[in-house]
Amino acid sequence: MITMLLQLNNIFKWVNSGGQRIFLLKDLSLKVEEGEFISVMGPSGSGKSTLLNVIGMLDNFDEGEYDFLHESVHTLKEKHLATLYKQYIGFVFQAYHLIDELTVYENLEMPLLYKKISGSERKALVADMLDRFNIVGKQKLFPTQLSGGQQQLVGVARALITSPKLILADEPTGNLNSKQGEEIMEIFKQLNDEGVTIIQATHSEKNAAYGSRIINLLDGRMV
Q1: 36-61+80-222 maps to which CATH number?
Q2: What is the pLDDT of residues 117-151, one digit of tens each?
């Protein structure tokens, strides 16, 4: 049985500049079923990151409707949105967004603290991620002591640690060499095989090919 994970209907998002509306997303509609792997492509400024931020509930929009697991996102209060986001969505950013003051271990543990997971279970989950990503030896280091590739691995591990239903990846291999990039994409593929839904924004044809469908954006519209 196919389950609809999310649906965007006629989404518009704009900013006002010099008395003019500049559209970041224009009349965009999208259906995503559970277990899909979607690649969003388009030139810089086409709306890829904006689309991911809207889907990930980090950004609001000006017009349209958004349903996520049969909840009308556009009608929900901030607090309810935060709960939905923390419960179901993992984000992998190009800029890592690790917390510099926390060690690798603490960065991984952070999302589990939000979910009020017990100490012993947190320990087990963090150990599992450190192991899976071969970063056990880095757990006491701070992000600034890691290479870009290692920081991105930690970012991916942190997004996965809560077993999200949906992973949103914004240029996830943008700062990595090709070998590290391939490792990350193989991890995504494996997760997708396990049933996790993935939406990635990418410039790379090679990365896009991992997806089961490709969406092209231009000036905030689907082309």
Answers
A1: 3.40.50.300
A2: 899 999 999 999 999 888 899 999 999 999 888 88
Q: Edge to edge, what strands does the sheet with 63-68 contain?
A: 20-33, 4-17, 63-68, 71-72
Q: Give yes or no for a contact between 143 and 67, defined as CB atoms under 8 angstroms apart.
A: no
| Predicted TM-score (pTM) of this structure | 0.89
Neighbouring-strand partners of residue 90? 167
Please report the sign of the dihedral spanned by the C-alpha atoms of residue 166, residue 209, residue 213, residue 202.
positive
Domain chopping of the chain, boundaries:
36-61+80-222
* One-letter amino acid of 7: Q
Residue 41 Cα distances to 86, 134, 171, 219, angstroms: 26, 30, 10, 12
Q: Are 158 and 110 in contact (CB under 8 A)?
A: yes
Report DSSP letters for 170-189, one per residue.
ESTTTTS-HHHHHHHHHHHH
Contact, 173 vs 185, CB < 8 A?
yes
Distance (Å) of CA 91 to CA 140, 185, 213, 220 = 23, 15, 20, 21
